[in-house]
Amino acid sequence: MGLSSALASAMSGLRANQAALSIVSSNVANSQTPGYVAQTPNQIEVTTGDFGSTAKTTGVSREIDSYVQNQLRTETGGSGYADQMANILKQLQSVYGTPGNSGTLETALNNFTSSLQALSTSAGSSSAQTVAVGAAQALATQLNVTTRGIQSLRSNVEQDLGTSAQAANAAMNQIADINTKIQGLASNDPSAATLMDQRDQAINTLSKYVDVRVTTDGSNQANIYTTTGIQLVGAGLASQFTFASSGALSATSLYNTDPAKSGVGALNIRLPNGSSIDVAGNNVVSSGQIAADLKLRDQTLVQAQNQVDQLAATMSSALSDKTTAGSTVSGPPAGFDIDLAGAQPGNTVNLTYTDATNTQRQITLVNVTDPAALPLQNATNANPMQIGVNFSGGMGAIASALNTALSGAHLTFSAAPSPATATTLRVTDDNTGLARVNSATSTKTISSLTSGSPQLPLFTDGSTALYTGAITASGSQMTGLAGRISVNPSLVTDPSKLSIYSTSPVTPTGDTTRSDYLYSQLTNTVFSYSPQTGLGSANQPFSGSVSNFLQQFLSVQANASTQATALQQGQSVVVSTLQAKFNSTSSVNLDSEMSNLIQLQNAYAANAHVMSVVQSMMNTLIQAQG
User: The pTM is what?
Assistant: First the structure.
């Protein structure tokens, strides 16, 4: 190797050292900068002449584990989902209160049933009547308060949807902007490395709100999709979430795929091509805080409201509804006559029959006076199956509608012949031997405080309206009932009607028939509850007393909160573990950087020494020639 080659090698070494020192300096300076990924110089050997070679720095490499990074983003989305679910469900438990404490549904119901029991024990004393009415008012108020708490949580989640959508939009715009800046830069360009750090941070932020899948193309452009395949960012173009808030939500503010019928804020994603997709209706996101908000607003908290509404509805109906067995028709064909007189919207006829396979089935005929609400929807193999029909439409029209709706059941509906009244419906088998009608009952809501029956319209929907379970095109009367329920104002004015159920003849003093009945209905009678409450199924609905139902759904909600908290803690551990693993390879290690610095110093000294020796040799050579 000649002196010139040696000098060139030493000078290239110094330049390579200078570049490496700059990178070490940058690493050390940014060791505490969030999202900064440690860099190492890319150096190659360049041959010069036959014997010499020089060092050349071609750029930098980012020390990153892509597999761990992708896993971390996935789990970050899961953590965002779990955090929001656990947070809201914990607040829901606060709405319910601590079991056994005052100001809870459980305590209010227990106080009311205890007051009814005391009313019977005291043989209907006026003071006991007043106490019982007060306990009923406290129970209604607690249901109102619980509804406001649930809807407040839904409104908070609705607001968070807007906030999260804005944050996700900001992250997507930043990613697209950085993509544009990176375009044309080599992946090992130092300036590109800094931009990629910023882009990774933006992607990490986005992954908190939605699930992301990231691909990088040959021009170093990050393309981001949800796991369902909706593109969030493509090169320099970003999709945008749009959210139109509905403000404070109520129990009747429900999501509908038809925007004209939806009562909640519309969350859509507008793609760069201008098309818009309903995020909730198309399941665009499956993880992250936005997915949690949608589930809470449209499912979890709606179900919680359904549970307290079902409680309010069952209590109201249990105390006010009177069930009457149909009159037997000996046949053949055999069946029953049911009088529909006095049936109000939502009142029912319940039929039990045995089909050709010897399976017992149930049918509930519901008085639906709003034609826009028909036909009623049933889950597959629902038992009982609900059939809506207008009871005031005349026996001919009623029978025709039922024969059409149940054409395959081998049942026959008709107007009962004289001497039955014109409001009497007859149901029999079709005389083929393929079905047998086992029972038929009608259930009607008693409206009078002194009907002569122990049933009592103790609770009302709002100030005066009776709860009858009416179904209209806008939904069921049960929806939001817990927020509207109150004690019948006529009973508040005259608490004695808790004992007096007849004026002709007058209920004897000390008669406890009504208070005994009310107490038994709330504590002993078994009812079936809608599967929309999350208990039971369409085929096997949950059955139990009012108290059993309350205890069951409170237990289910408490378990859901406990499981959500456990999931949150588990996700936190997973994210922390993955972050530590990612940091172990990608973050700046000051010990390693100090070691690199010592090596660079030694290399610098060696190159400087070569240059010094070359200079000395050249001086000696010049002097020798002189």
Answer: 0.87
